[in-house]
Design a protein that fits this description.
2 copies of one chain form a homodimer. Helix content of chain A is 68%, strand content 0%. Chain A folds into 2 domains: 49 residues, Orthogonal Bundle (Arc Repressor Mutant, subunit A), CATH 1.10.10.60; 152 residues, Tetracycline Repressor, domain 2, CATH 1.10.357. The first copy, chain A, is elongated, with a radius of gyration of 22 Å. Chain A is mainly α and 237 residues long. The first copy, chain A, starts with 12 loop residues before the first helix and ends in a 22-residue tail after the last helix. At the A-B interface, helix 1, helix 5, helix 6, helix 7 and helix 8 of A face helix 1, helix 5, helix 6, helix 7 and helix 8 of B. Chain B binds a DNA duplex (30 and 30 nucleotides) through helix 2 and helix 3.
Chain lengths: 237, 237
DNA sequence: GTTAGAAATGACCGACCGGTCAGAATGCGA
DNA sequence: TCGCATTCTGACCGGTCGGTCATTTCTAAC
């Protein structure tokens, strides 16, 4: 009955350690989402995880900072997986449909995981704009994980001629910016009882983003669709 | 020579007070951009503004929080002005050109005022997601100043039939999301010597955003342009 | 020059928190 | 059961910082 130290897949001892680590990260997520990095206290994380403060330092010798990094890293890993899974389908599927699927899943992901979105908004930016070289590098690395994954289908769609040959990195940033902007709107929306707007549903939001992104706002093309490069239009002084 | 307390436009005493207040806010902007709210110290702000710490509390009895609010409020006011100025032109100008002008100015505004963008990124979100009812309300109010201003031209363009009749609030959020996403990319880009990308210029960025926003990514319309409502497309489970 | 009121100042206080470490608890093999 | 090793723990320490207020400095009216 009592476990033997046999050569099982994972040495038991280690598995338990991993479980505890996960519990600590769970607690950290919760507190970070609620308070933000600056106001979160190690003490509270420890309390929620039901460990002594000192124990956290066993698992995360780097202290608060290391905990934040671990949490953020997980969030971005999940996001990258989500991207990769969303585009895994056959290559014949129209780009528009593939992206529509991704966008829908991304909204769903963060809608049922508010706290992760909060952490991303509150802390990721802070890392990116931190004065500390190390932190900035970490942030860029994380962001590139996702951007890199998303660049693959974008490039494919450009090569197949489905979408305009604009700089892929820029397209990726715009897509991510759109997602963030609308997710933000939805998050704020139910934060105060819908002040004015008719409360976009997750599905409506997906359609909307896809439409604007792929079809554009204009009702009638101002100039030929195959005018692929932005070209020069009205500039201002 | 010595000033008289005459009934001039502004009572001198008050003007000087206003100047000092402005100097303090300048210093605050600088420190907030560099360190963020949590790590900024009143002491440092006072030092840079060349006042004693106590004096700051004369001008901002609410302390650190009130200072942040004042700074953020100014940023949003400027932004709203920028929106209103950009669309003040005659009503016959095509919507696309008007928005192109706005987008260009917005990039220019934040490109030559990095520190304001930083503050917006680092702190505004934090306010929006704060647990405190009061802070959230403040944030929403600020944001609405800008969103409200931008909604005007959007509504006009919808009514004139130039752009699709999608929910104006959503369009506004997407526009703002795009601007933020791309501005962010540019900010990060020159934060580390351009890792890979060919470094989007401010003007290229404006064209790019305008193109995607108005003309869409697709090279050929997948379905009729006047299919104004997003309609149902590929959904996923 | 005098003085009353306003404004500026920075030493000080108390709260808070990240991180440490000596000792307690626990596990585990002999 | 014993004893060693590993892990857990929370009281404690040092440092920081927001905010206060008694004192000083300035201003301007008389």
């Amino acid at each position: 009955m009592t476990a033997e130290t046999s050569v099982e897949s994972v040495p038991r001892r280690e598995r338990e350690r991993e479980m505890r680590r996960a519990a600590m990260l769970d607690a950290a997520r919760q507190v970070l989402a609620e308070k933000g990095f600056a106001d979160a206290t190690i003490e509270e994380i420890a309390q929620i995880a039901e460990f002594g403060k000192g124990t956290l330092y066993n698992y995360f010798p780097g202290g608060k900072e290391e905990i934040l990094h671990a949490v953020v890293e997980d969030v971005y890993d999940d996001l990258r997986d989500l991207v990769e899974r969303s585009f895994a389908a056959d290559a014949t599927e129209p780009a528009r449909d593939q992206f529509r699927r991704f966008i829908g899943r991304a909204f769903a992901h963060f809608t049922e995981r508010r706290e992760l979105f909060r952490i991303l908004m509150k802390e990721a930016q802070r890392l990116g704009f931190s004065g500390d070289e190390e932190r900035v590098r970490f942030y860029l690395e994380q962001r590139r994980k996702v951007a890199g994954a998303l660049e693959v289908p974008v490039r494919r769609a450009i090569e197949s001629g489905e979408i305009r040959p604009l700089p892929p990195e820029a397209i990726v940033h715009m897509i991510l910016g759109n997602l963030q902007g609308v997710q933000m709107q939805m998050a704020l929306q139910d934060r105060i009882g819908t002040c004015t707007a008719p409360s976009l549903s997750s599905d409506e939001a997906s359609d909307l983003v896809t439409t604007i992104l792929f079809d554009g706002l204009l009702t009638a093309p101002a100039h030929p669709r195959n005018d692929s490069e932005p070209g020069t239009h009205a500039h201002d002084a």
